[in-house]
Amino acid sequence: MTKKPKLLDQVRFTLRAKHYSYLTEKTYVHWIRRYIYFHNVKHPKEMGESEIGQFLTHLAVNKKVSPATQNQALCSLLFLYRHILKIDIDKITNLKWAKPTQYLPVVLSKNEVSNLFSCMYGVPLLMAQIMYGAGLRKMEVHQLRVKDIDFDRHQIIVRQGKGGKDRHVPLPKSCRETLTEQISLTKNLCQQDRALNIPGVQLPYAIEKKYPNAGKELSWQWVFPSLKISKDPQSNIRRRHHIHPSVVAKHLKAAAKHCGLGKKISCHTLRHSFATHLLETNSDLRTIQELLGHKDVSTTQIYTHVMQRNETGTSSPLDTLQY
């Protein structure tokens, strides 16, 4: 008789079967584990709406998490009860979602972007340039493969972005030369791995089973590969992965500090700046929506609130006083 997998393993297997991302898997498992330990390792099947409410209240009141984080925890627990424990979801729908806080995104001026990039170098600089120059999310840049760079058509193909959608974005001309050099590095690492008989890179869905050698082909290699071989957290296979997501974030933070940038920025700030600067040059809102991969244009409209509007002639009443 086959032994039933442990609860958290069931969560992992179900998330993978539904094609959730690995980051989502880590997040859901994290919150479910915290929920269980908060209630002294009591099995979730023995708990319900009351215990979930207590946990969420603890996060909001004692841990002072943001509304978005609180909703993330609730989403994880609802997945557990609905898909793993098969408990009637109607019994716990009285739980209220936290009202999201509406923040205006932090946006850099073009001069600030230039100063920031002048304090960066190497691969982190190239990745940051692509985030700003093409409006890509951090993980979209990390997960670029060689076949996704189309030099002839001057575009980058983002595969399975947020929401599982593909889209085309412009390839910045100023990145072409360094991107070509980066792909040459990727090619050398690929040849090195083949010589050492290291398994090919991780492939999406069932491609690895259908085409066993595809992961060893140059076209499927990561554009920004890690220089070290490491164990795949899902399959436990030792292979080459893309650069760790924390690398660019650390370099960006260090560069901001070095150039005296007073704003609190992240990799996503470059994407915000991309959209805002396009709006300021009168680019069409619908076009920007498609470039960003937003499902609804209302998400893109937030950038209209942060763009510079000096050309309207509006001035502060303070500047009209005489004293």
Give a written overview of the molecule.
A 3-stranded antiparallel beta sheet has the order 1-2-3. Strands 4-5 form a two-stranded antiparallel sheet. The protein is 47% helix and 7% strand. It starts with 6 loop residues before the first helix and ends in a 23-residue tail after the last helix. Helix 1 runs antiparallel to helix 2. The chain has 2 domains: 86 residues, DNA polymerase, domain 1 (Orthogonal Bundle), CATH 1.10.150.130; 195 residues, Intergrase catalytic core (hpI Integrase, Chain A, Orthogonal Bundle). The model has no long low-confidence stretch (mean pLDDT 89). It is mainly α and 323 residues long.
State the share of residues found in helices, binned by percent.
40-55%
The poorly predicted ranges are none
Overall strand count: 5
Q: Ends: how far apart? A: 89 Å
Structural class: mainly alpha
CATH architecture of the largest domain: Orthogonal Bundle
- CATH superfamily membership of the largest domain, which one? Intergrase catalytic core
Number of helices: 13
Query: Which percent range describes the beta-strand content?
Result: 5-15%
CATH class of the largest domain reads Mainly Alpha
State the CATH topology of the largest domain.
hpI Integrase, Chain A
What is the molecular shape? globular
What is the C-alpha radius of gyration, as a whole number of Å? 23 Å
Order of H and E elements = HHHHHHHEEEHHEEHHHH
Strand order of the largest sheet: 1-2-3
User: What is the assembly state of the chains in this entry?
Assistant: single chain
- Which sheet architecture does the biggest sheet show? 3 strands, antiparallel
> What is the domain tally?
2
Which whole number gives the mean pLDDT?
Answer: 89
